[in-house]
């Protein structure tokens, strides 16, 4: 979906610019992010849910000040999950009331900052945190709007979902055994917080809508319980993020309007059955917005054929700019980007420059047999959880993010320098 083409000399173009020119100007490795595509995806989510709902972009997928400004301009809200993300959001002018603050172990400092600046909501993740946020808000003379994150007993995995009776993970408060109902009871007793709704996030890179539907049904079930016990109809529910994107041609993601339709229908139906007012819905897509909008451009350094196995193609980055292959066995594709080649495809593995054999960028790839040092190769769909999870392993410098739009390219996160690295070293 990026504005990708081929120039007459065979080089891949993005937003009308040849990647050979991009590499010359910005170096490699580098992430190139299509701003037009990013904005279009924001608009698609916003319009799919309409004015009666809220879309919070999950900043953990990728956050920078430019991104915050685009979100603001496109009418999206922002979900942050650390003081650092909050600081980035505020410094780029995101109004605090459009920020939601998440996390299973927010520090007192983080909570204090969030409450002081007036974030729109804090999502409470534990019994301790209910009390902690209430006390901090009270001390600051504020009443903080909060949601309670519940775990609905649906565990979502890549490409599938498994309904589980007991959840064995760290997030949220279980609906099972009346724990979530007890959390609501506690929250309603405390002056420092105003409980506005219930939150559920079932996982990430999900393709099957059934998991979201079960979650929506169970969250509405809790709203009905709360109404029966306390006589209050909580006005909001958040159904989290998690929508999958296509990393390879095997993946078949849903469109925002399909998700909006499915979620609205199920929530309306369940509310009608329970005789509840339909709450305001919010969602928190991260990957689905930014993932497809960027690719990583690498320069090939060495090509090593292993007889009878495959050819190892080493690039100038690796697990420091994309940890997902090593961490999740994630699948990516790769293409020769600097020229056209008619050579036979050969089985290759794209690896990085780091000092371990698990440093794989693309596990199984077909590249033209004449691939050679100096060629540029592009790995698509690296917009989400690549720069945001990048590291300085081996003291490698983290790559820049360059935004392309209408034939122009500009750096939105600059490349790290050795000076940046050494600045933290006080010995
Ligand atoms: N909301 C909450 C509460 C979340 O925990 C997450 C992701 C999202 C929204 C956004 O999910 P998305 O729409 O991006 O799937 N590092 C992993 C993904 C971890 C996701 C963590 N939470 C990866 O690279 O696949």
Indicate the multimeric state: single chain
* Bound compounds: ligand LLP
User: Structural class of the helix and strand makeup?
Assistant: alpha/beta
Strand content: 25-35%
What is the third-level CATH name, the topology of the largest domain?
A: TIM Barrel
Measured between the Cα atoms of the first and last residue, the distance is: 48 Å
Radius of gyration: 23 Å
Main beta sheet: strand number and arrangement?
Answer: 9 strands, mixed
- How many domain regions? 2
What is the name of the CATH class of the largest domain? Alpha Beta
Helix amount, in percent?
A: 25-40%
Shape: elongated
Protein name: Diaminopimelate decarboxylase
Function: Specifically catalyzes the decarboxylation of meso-diaminopimelate (meso-DAP) to L-lysine.
Subunit structure: Homodimer.
Binding site for substrate: 287, 324, 328, 356, 385
